[in-house]
Amino acid sequence: MVCRRCIVSGRVQGVFFRETTRREAERLGVTGYAINLRDGSVEVLACGDIAAVEKLAEWLWAGPPAARVSKVECRDVAETPPGRFTTG
């Protein structure tokens, strides 16, 4: 079990990025959250099996069709894994 916090930059707000991230996380069995940040980026916390978390982190580079991701920065964090994936 690992938790990874990612900051996704680019055109990622107003394009259903959080909702599609939630769907992908649920498909992979990952818990955590996706929230909009004031600077226009999206913060994603992904917790679960390392292979599933890595797949979600790779998926963040694409996101939904309307997104234009320019950067994804991830780092492992010591967090208590939440019970499900939410959008804030």
Note the topology:
Layout: E1 2-11, H1 17-28, E2 31-36, E3 42-48, H2 50-59, E4 68-76, E5 85-87
Parallel strand pairs: 2-5
Antiparallel strand pairs: 1-3, 1-4, 2-3
Helix pairs in contact: 1-2
> Distance N terminus to C terminus?
23 Å
CATH top level assignment: Alpha Beta
Q: Which word captures the global form?
A: globular
Kindly give the count of domains.
Answer: 1
Q: Which CATH architecture is right? A: 2-Layer Sandwich
SSE order: EHEEHEE
Spans of at least 5 consecutive residues whose pLDDT stays below 50 are none
Strand content: 35-45%
Rg computed from alpha carbons, rounded to a whole number of angstroms: 11 Å
User: What is the mean pLDDT?
Assistant: 96
Q: How many beta-strand runs? A: 5
Structural class: alpha+beta
Description:
This protein has a single domain (2-82), classed as Alpha-Beta Plaits (2-Layer Sandwich), CATH 3.30.70.100. A hairpin with a 5-residue loop joins strand 2 (31-36) and strand 3 (42-48). With 88 residues, it is an alpha+beta fold. The protein contains two helices and five strands. The model has no long low-confidence stretch (mean pLDDT 96). 25% of the residues lie in helices and 40% in strands. The protein has helices at residues 17-28, 50-59; strands spanning 2-11, 31-36, 42-48, 68-76, 85-87. A five-stranded mixed beta sheet has the order 4-1-3-2-5. The longest helix is centred in the N-terminal third of the chain and has 12 residues, at 17-28. Helix 1 (17-28) runs antiparallel to helix 2.
